[in-house]
Amino acid sequence: MLRLHSPIRDYAWGSTTLLAALQGREPSGAPEAEMWLGAHPAAPSEVETGTGERVTLDRLIAQGPERHLGEAARFGRLPYLMKLLAAGRPLSIQAHPTLEQAREGFAAEEAAGTPLDAPERNYKDDNHKPEMVVALTPFSALCGFRRPEESQLTFERIAQVMTEYADGNATEVALAARHLAVLLADGDVTGAFAEILDPESIWSRGGTAELVEALTGMQDLILHDDAIVTALEAAEHFPDDPGVLVTLLLNRVDLMPGQAVHLPAGNVHAYLHGLGVEIMAASDNVLRGGLTPKHVDVAELTRIVTFDPLPVPYTNPEPVGQGTVRYRPPFEEFALTQLTAEGADAPAPAVLHGPAIAVGTKGTAEVCCGDERTTLAPGEAVFLSAEQTAAAPFEVRSGDGENTTVYVASMPAD
Fold this sequence. Notes:
- It is an enzyme of class 5 (isomerase).
- Its EC number is 5.3.1.8.
- With 414 residues, this protein is an alpha+beta fold.
- Among the domains are: 145-252; 318-410, Jelly Rolls (Sandwich), CATH 2.60.120.10.
- It is built from 13 helices and 23 strands.
- The protein has helices at residues 18-23, 57-63, 65-69, 99-111, 148-165, 172-185, 189-197, 207-215, 219-223, 226-235, 243-246, 298-304, 386-391; strands at residues 2-5, 8-9, 34-37, 46-48, 54-56, 80-87, 94-95, 131-135, 139-145, 250-255, 260-263, 269-281, 287-288, 318-321, 324-327, 335-342, 348-350, 356-362, 365-369, 372-376, 381-384, 394-398, 403-410.
- The protein has a nine-stranded antiparallel beta sheet with strand order 5-4-1-21-18-23-16-15-14.
- Strand 15 and strand 16 form a beta hairpin.
- Helix 5 runs antiparallel to helix 6 (172-185).
- The protein is globular and about 75 Å long.
């Protein structure tokens, strides 16, 4: 087992307290959004070698891909990226491409000579990015489209409120809201989505801020429409961003610790707040759709988004042994195992497949694989090669006699 030293990304939406609280340290005072646990070249973890030196995990794997990755070597990389994600305010509304779309989009931007760090760049690599998040604290997100008739009712309410706010006059904002309701009455979610994000629309020319001002403080309306409550939460941070209107089209999901959702390609989503373990295919491809100062390519986003209203894709944990449950989303790049040792005499075992990354999230954990063992405090992590997981089972014991929890990313068994 190789101990990981992993970078924390300081994105503006990051919480200033959640990761520090998990790790039992004083907050740095700066946003701490994501701890990246993996070999993604944008921010790879470092491992300690036998000489006491450090090398990035991607370089280590490149020195012996068959030994470190096993059958996962067919992906040409460690196939997943694991994160501790700490959202203090909403992330950008976003969606991810399919593998084919990612390959085509990356090739086209490479051929066009668009620099990888260009603000208008959509595709940072040629991989897709299906993902899953498991809540460690109460965790809220937006995930997929609501049924159009539900969103229609919300926009009809908004049109009425905006008319009343203008003393009965049909303002441009009221008319625009009513038009969105008409589109949704026809089931045209695509049209409503594109109209909201059109840079020439009223929503990009002051209409969003006008709407937010009118809705703020209208308790009667807010009490009757949870979608408006969510929109106003987003507006606290992005009062003039059309993404506030996009939230009205989406399902809100509130997870309790241990609950999870998975997000396939094309699913429009945004995390709102909370701490979670996130795992995804090793990619950084994000098409944004609001609640961000970054580039929004409406045409490309609309091309990759799945507009069909679907049930929220919960991932139900499956018990697989004492203190051990597995989250198995329908993706071939990863599975996630939660191991909870309840006291010193109740170890939690797991059979892992392929390369694995284990991170502590509660208590002091003693982790064992074969003859190797080490301790993990919350936020500490280790890498296990495919060679190692094939040779011996993995086990978590309590290192301090209290309940302790470790999450392990690995490959699916099937």
